[in-house]
Fold each of these.
Amino acid sequence: MTTDPLPTVEVETGPAPSYSVIWMHGLGADGNDFVPVVERFGLEGTPVRFVFPHAPMRPVTINEGYVMRAWYDITYENLSLKEDEKGVRESQEAMEVLIAREQARGIAPDHIVLAGFSQGGAIALQTGLRHRERLAGILALSAYLPLPDTVEQERAKANLQIPVFMGHGSEDPIVPPKLAQASCSRLLTLGYPVEWHEYHMPHSVCEEEVADIGLWLMRIVQG
């Protein structure tokens, strides 16, 4: 297992934060991508540390092997075909290192939210459902459930009731809404309390979604 944490960008909404949100970016972006959104969540006065890791650089098959920041390789436009299980699990391990680092900094596991957009959201689901200690929640935006056939066997008892927020664009050409809806249905069938939010947008984030995320996060951090 990787022992060195990935490089990160951090933003704190107040002194001495008691909650952490580890937020993973999408394919080709980096940890700076969602930093400007933090101030729009309405968390002023509620100390939360946002940790935005940079994914490793790797060749991405669907982009002609171009090397970019990616949590795992993508081979086909149909994201459910020939998944890069090795890459997914390596990124899961990297998130476990960051979770452990937050714990070492005084944040309890059940005060840690895993979040992400697109690929990052997939890794948030992959990691959060399998983490052995209770986490605060999973936020998956424009994402889907990777390695769906392994979830039931590998999921952790501690997080069987973890709150999950899934937000998706009805016009998303990258992660088809049907794939995300199927992922949501799979999680609901397994008994997870998933909130599904659909927005009239492409593969992106809109103001309505940002407002909904802020309300969801506020519920999490206020218990």
Amino acid sequence: MTSERLKPKLEEKVFILGKDILRPGEIPSITVWGNTLPEAWENAVLATMEYGTHIPTEYDQEIDPQSRDATMMITVFNPLKEPRIHRALPCGFSDLAVYVREVVDGIHDDLVKPGGWTYSYHDRLFNWPGINKNFEVGNIDQIDTLIKKLAEAPHSRRAQAITWVPPLDATESEPPCLQRVWFRVVKSEKETYLLEMNTHWRSRDAFKAAFMNMYAFVELQKKVAGQLSQITGKNIEVGRYVDIADSFHIYGSYIRKGEMDGFIASLEKRNFKERTCRSDDPYIRAEFAEGRARK
């Protein structure tokens, strides 16, 4: 549970659909928002701790309390606005850079093979092993396809890419968490256009995966916006980012080990500036350069 001190601030940026109608144990549908990535992610984690249902997972030990779980929609209004990084990362800053390259550039796609990784997000988005129009098995670059579609019809509702491959994933013990990405271009003020992006997840480790996922996919959003700008000659910038998860969960082991108490205590003791950092900070840029240089 969050502290009484944090509750009023949290309630300003959280909406729970039908919270007075939900029956005991039902999974709440929660909407949170924030101006920046770290702010929105913090609100989502706190809302899950405070309002999420208590439910077991397939990874629990007998001594673990039940997880906290919610269906979550997170809206980040300015995903490129600084500060962009939360200091509660489960890894180093250089590791975050490596993960971004994994998602955006596919540096680990060579590990997707029999006896190796069953998937990578980049491989599924840029090299989906599905069926083409001739009903033949073929690898499809879904991102290239949707970029061409948006260049032709920016307002199209069809610019999406999926990860799920039923013959591969339906019985896999660790199938992809990300299911779908969706893009659309809207006209903003004057000659500026915005690339809006939604991502849809079947399952999400709220505390130790979600922030890294969000950061990396905003980088993909930025890349797609840049390519569209080049193709169309229009000024297409990154718009709002919406992140939807069927199961946004906090494992009971994190609660048992006191990690969530420590996280909540840090929010009480440190102001927002102290618990975040800018991606353009010289130290962070050096860490990212180190990460980009390795695999």
Amino acid sequence: MQNLVTDRPNVVTPRQAGWWAPIWVVAYVALLPLPGIAESVLVLGALFTMLRLLLLRLKDGDGIRSLLGVPALALTSVLFCAYWLPQLGSVVGAEDQGKVWGKVAAGLRYLPFMWLVAIAVGTSQRRSTTFSGLAVVTGLWTLDALLQAALGTSPLFWSLDQLKWLSSGHGLCTVQEIAAADRLPGVFGPCNLKFGQVLASLSPFLLFVVGARFGRWGWLLSAAAVGVVLVLAGSRASLITYALVLLVSGWRLLGAKWMLLVMLAGVVGLGALTAGSAQVRERFARTAMAFSGGASGVNEALSGRSQIWSAALCMVREHPVNGVGARGFRDAYPGCNPYPEQKPVWGEGPALHAHQIVLEILAETGVLGLLLWIAGAAMAVRAWIYSGAQARDRARPAALALAVTVFPLNTHLAFYSAFWGGLTVLLAALYAGALLAEQGD
């Protein structure tokens, strides 16, 4: 049978050869509860992509353009530069230049990884596989967390923990970490309390896929399940993120009247969960301290973040151009701690990062870094504005996931850490690859 693309029998085109990319992407996300293994998958995926592109270059002289169109390649590379160049600029004057140089060198792995992710959504078939895979992972995590809420144990984390015992003779978490957990940890476990933020950032993939396949009631059921899990998971930042996801995705699918009913139901459900969960009541009581306890009450309500933000502003004043160095916040914190004589709300040790994206960028990479981030964001928005309706529709889940993850009016994990940085560049590459995929793919 003649191949319609090449007019040669049984020939696999380079674009068809990208079938492996969705596997890498979904595997990386599925393994995020095991950060070390997930990072290994990221690095191996980057190396595999570089090798694959080199072989294509030697074979047909085209290289990456045979798997990824030029516009998607350009935007992906620009977004990488907006993330990586601020780290490079922060080396000059950093308190620990060796550490920052190591961070800069390690950050280069993100460029081929982002190409890999963009390739994974470069055609309609690969995009469907990738987005569906991410939806399945997110759905399984949600069901697992609901089972943990009902039974007291996460089946997925228990399974991972048993494998760890068999392989090394000890579990994933210590007894102290298990005892100290004050929220629903889900598959991430009590020693890695990032479940809420990750689930909220990935929830658009689940809601868009379910809404497209099962309509309004499927979306409502999924939205309610994820919402319950996020309230029990205890991260207030994740609730802000998820509220934005619901507003954007639900408004398009349900319309204004249904969204109003959803918001009212959400308020009622939140009240019921608060009444039934001591941990949820405690977190809302802590939040209420912001309105009654003065400056100390605000700091307590924010889990010490006002103290951290004051230190970040100190770093910005002292290093305004290029910051204290990527991931140098913890080293600079003692010199900028506004209350060195007091025990911090979070316990012993310095603050590790600024817990807010704008302050993190300014403190660690300075005004230069912030301008580069803004330039990257402007290019991403410009690409959205000048794309057609079909391109926007296919990129909408990734666009929403990226937008709510970097939403500046929230608190955040460390964007220059391996864990949150890896997830952020993945979302950026999913957005670029899906938006600028070639027409007709």
Amino acid sequence: MAQSAENRGLTRPPNIVVVLADDWGYGDLACQNPDSRIPTPFCDGLANQGMRFTDAHTGSAVCTPTRYGLLTGRYAWRSRLTRGVLWGYSAPLIDPEVPTLPAVLQRAGYRTAAIGKWHLGLEWARRVGSGPWPANIDTPDADPTAHIDFTGPVLRGPHTAGYDRSFVIPASLDMAPYCFIRDGRIVTPPTDRIDDSPRPQYWRGGPISPGLTHASVMPRLTQEACEFLWDHHRTATDQPFMMAFYPTLPHYPHIPNLPYQGKSGCGAYGDGVVEFDASVGAILATLEATGHAENTIVIVTSDNGADLSGGQAGFGHASNSWLRGQKADIHEGGHRVPFIVRWPGVVDAGTVSDATICMTDIFATVADAVGATIPKGGAPDSVSFRSVLDGTSAGTQVRGSVVHHSMDGTFAIRSGPWKLSTGLGTGGFTAPRTIEATPNGPTGTLFHLGDDPRETHDLWSEWPGEVARLRRELADIRGR
């Protein structure tokens, strides 16, 4: 077993780097999928140096609620967002009184940074006399540009959620407005407009900053992440740091940059995964160059499963490997994701864990690792898995159950090998999204993932006792 951080005589707590990919599927990690057509050498190397989890789950099968869960340690259905995602003009989802992981780390003496896709809502400055905010603001059709003062400050965003430094885009890279925001100020106001783009690029039309292109965003974000690490190395070497890096890949638009075109056997989608992997490699190389690699916990994961509409299946590649379903679905392909942790001297290299963990657990685990105090009532759905990382737990399972959530608000609960869903359809992108229950028939599904990991044999009618138990447990968790 590796030494504990304390036994290595460290003079300060470990740094933290969290990389949250956008729509990166379980089977897109090459070392996890022997049939992958996409090379991911940097993430594979990270897994060889740390621990790879095979049963890690996002709090939701779509991105905004998962990102909320990571930052707050709360399932997002406890917020106003009970289905779907936010859009580019949506108001902030994180209430000011809810503790966030970066704010907790700030109080523990950390310098914190967020770089990349935000997608948790922003409070834009309003034009004087512009009238009421449009009623359709939480839809893709909203265009309230006449109401926004893009030259004014962004009143709430990552800079008010615990991050000392931030450089973000408002939402996904297919959602207007298209602009960079640094520390609560728009870098270049989005005074130009761009039209809709068809697939495979695919973005929605709307305001865009002059000179900004969709293809330029990912390289710029990677550059900003590496510059933060260098700046911290030069100016604050005695202070630990936490950097959250939120790449825009491999989500739409599928426009890999020239160095990565043709580098996979999987078209534009696969080349985008290669570009994401190279971005991870650049961050790892910067940690090495700045001398921080040995005292930095690096977590690389994804906000949900892969979207299978990217054309990858036509190349014989299964982005979600053997898992059923895809992004947005209640099935495993919607929320079981790659999850890698490297913590030199604590996590044994090349280990694989089958512990069931959730994205919300990053909050408690990081706080546990650095000795930070979570405020009373904070992170209620977060369970530390540090004992899995350092090998001190008697068993591999640290949490009793995990609650899953689909795009349309369908719930499922996982307890040991059992998984109960409250709906009969997928709840997401895969048809049928909904299935009406028959009179006196099952209203949900029950699978034993130990015997049936592909979720092919519904046991609802055969195990009524388990159905009743899991429904009670889910109701209890939702009621807390």
